[in-house]
Amino acid sequence: MKYFFFLMIVALFSCETPEKEAFDVNWTKNNSSELNKNLAIQEGINIKLFLEMRKDWTLTQTGSGLQYFIYEHGEKDTLIHPSKGNIAEIEYEVKLLDGTVVSKTEINEYEEFKVDNSDIESGVQEAVKKLTKGDRAKLIIPSHIGHGLIGDLNKIPPLTTLVMDIYLLGIK
Description:
Low-confidence stretches: none
Mean pLDDT: 88
Number of helices: 3
Strand content: 15-25%
CATH class of the domain at 57-172: Alpha Beta
Structural class: alpha+beta
CATH topology of the domain at 57-172: Chitinase A, domain 3
Helix content: 25-40%
Distance between the termini: 84 Å
Order of helices and strands: HHEEEEEHEE
Radius of gyration: 25 Å
């Protein structure tokens, strides 16, 4: 038994713990800018490839990068668009570029949100202000105005472009 304890003590003290490797964390604003630029370029390429297969979509692009296409116009006699503080009532379906449906309203249901005063993606906030009651539109929402760097922590991965079909039911 003495030998057993002796061997255990020798084994315990003879084990070396490897020294932790020092990481050179010399990240600069330049590195961040370059990374963001490269991510934006790759996302732009992915969007272009997606749109190559949808030549019939006549998209308008805004300064933020949102692209939208109103494919069905609603009420012709109104030019009222939702604005800050209005409640927008919408039906929607959100997909990834590969066609995976990640979110949608249930049949005969809709979602309400306060324009510019809710946690709805800024790309959707911007797009809904371009619509009038009854309009149906396709949206291409780049990640920086969608769910951004972390996704939705569920079905939408980080840095993901969203394709949204939206129907503006009403404005309160």
